[in-house]
Design brief:
The protein has helices spanning 3-6, 8-16, 20-24, 36-41, 45-53, 66-69, 88-99, 117-127, 133-144, 151-161, 167-178, 188-195, 201-214, 219-229, 235-248, 253-264, 269-282, 287-298, 303-316, 322-332, 337-352; strands spanning 32-34, 59-65, 103-109. It is mainly alpha-helical. The termini are far apart.
């Protein structure tokens, strides 16, 4: 490590201590760049420094993480050559920066373990003051990765995330949280509350899919996911939530009714038919639910999709009385002779068995 770097920090402190009158005498404000990836770890460090030199800037700001600089305790902390110190990339940058006429401003950062509730609360309070969505999300994710978080801290972090305006950053927080081993079922309501605040259909559905992938949901949580999915406008995104939920969880009668209400809001024939088929494949339905399926099927405009749902229903349920009448009415509305005939043949075959 060069001697100039070793005395950089005391020099900076001395400069900051200069009286205001001295500061006023400076001809112009120093301008610099803060970009460690480009100046320390890039394969094009030299060309990057040359590009910055052309802007007539005079300072390169470096962030030195103390945990990386001294991963183990030095035998002699005052000895810059102690083998415990890892300063090779900083040394290289300082030497190169000096060749291009830059001064190096070194900031040493200390990483705290945040092992107790007070530190975590203070960290969360600090996160709430961040104005940039990216940095806000990054800090919250760092907090959520800590082990053995209390429910209060998790709820506070998710409440803080609701103030983030970018849907992607909200989704990034949620998908990170649900993938952690410490995620608890008691945190699902706060998770879904934040998910429901996401306006982008893709990001919204992505967070719901991640929840179902990592958690076996309780019946109340299933109802909450259905409610959250109701605000998704895109047919494809809504359908993939419905199908995934149908395939992974058992519905009660009220949830089946809610599912079918959501299907009614799907406008695409293909998505509507696949939602209905999935429900029949995964659940044993009562006559009232079958009647609603037939009613939803009658609204499908594509002959093939309508026939697909009807033949699936005929193969699984007894069509008698009002159900049979509704089935025949829906089948008769099919314009294509082939699809209409195979739909009617399906119910006839079932009746002859």
């Amino acid at each position: 490590m060069s001697r100039k770097l070793r005395v950089a920090l005391p020099v900076i402190i001395v400069l900051l201590a200069l009286p205001a009158a001295t500061a006023k005498a400076v001809a112009r404000m120093p301008v610099g760049f803060f970009d460690d990836p480009s100046f320390r770890w890039s394969n094009e460090t030299t060309s990057n420094l040359l590009s910055v030199q052309r802007t007539h800037s005079s300072i390169v700001h470096v962030l030195a993480n103390w945990a990386s600089i001294a991963p183990t305790k030095p035998a002699n902390a005052l000895n810059g050559n102690d083998p415990a110190y890892n300063l090779s990339d900083v040394d290289t940058l300082v030497n190169q920066a000096q060749q291009y006429g830059f001064e190096v401003l070194l900031t040493i950062a200390q990483r705290y373990d945040l092992n107790d509730e007070a530190q975590r609360t203070a960290f969360l309070n600090g996160a709430n003051k961040l104005g940039t969505d990216y940095e806000h999300a990054r800090v919250l994710i760092e907090l959520l990765k800590r082990p053995n978080l209390s429910e209060q801290i998790v709820r506070g972090a998710l409440a803080s995330a609701k103030t983030i305006g970018t849907d992607y950053e909200k989704g990034r927080i949620l998908t990170t949280l649900v993938g952690l081993s410490g995620f608890q079922e008691s945190e699902v309501p706060s998770y879904l509350d934040l998910a429901s605040s996401i306006g982008t259909d893709y990001e919204h559905s992505r967070t719901l899919m991640a929840l179902m992938e990592h958690q076996k949901l309780s019946p109340p949580a299933v109802s909450q996911v259905l409610k959250s999915a109701s605000s998704i406008g895109t047919d494809y995104e809504k359908s993939r939530i419905l199908i995934a939920l149908s395939q992974s969880h058992n519905f009660d009668e009220k949830q089946i009714a809610t599912y079918l209400t959501l299907v009614d809001s799907v406008g695409t024939d293909y998505e509507r038919s696949r939602d209905l088929v999935s429900l029949m494949e995964q659940h044993k339905l009562g006559n009232d639910s079958v009647a609603r399926i037939l009613a939803e099927t009658a609204k499908i405009g594509t002959d093939y999709e309508k026939a697909r749902v009807l033949t699936e229903a005929a193969g699984r349920y007894e069509m008698q009385g009002a159900l049979r009448d509704a089935y025949i009415k829906a089948a008769d509305s099919i314009g294509t002779e082939y699809d209409r005939n195979r739909t009617l043949a399906a119910i006839t075959k079932k009746e002859m068995m």
